[in-house]
Amino acid sequence: MTGTDDLPARGDRAADAAGAAGATVRIGSVANSALTFGAHSTATTTNVSHGEPDGAQRELLAAVRALRADLARFVSTADTEVLDAELVAAEEEITASGEAGRPRLERLRTSLASAGEWVGALGSGVAVAELVTALLGG
Description:
Elements: H1 10-21, H2 55-71, H3 78-97, H4 102-115, H5 117-121, H6 123-135
Helix pairs in contact: 2-3, 2-6, 3-4, 4-6
């Protein structure tokens, strides 16, 4: 046995080189993971689950979604567009972390007030306003 017995034949090495030059890697999507490539590399990930929203936050989430659906039926104005953006942000914050924080609730309250009294005439608008007020402590 010689020192070259474990090496591929000359033709195989050429095929390997040609294949390596055209090699591709495709990753569709990755979530809650860490990836690493290359020799001696390491990857670490820590996934934190914030859990489900509590009862008041679940109610707020449902009311926010209902108000967004109601707003979609009206002609938008600059104020309702700002309100809709705040509603979207509140929905995302609640689903990601389990709750809308105080700064988000304060912006939401301000946007509700700016959007006009007709928002207050909507049952969903009243629900969001009442829940925001309760979560802010009055």
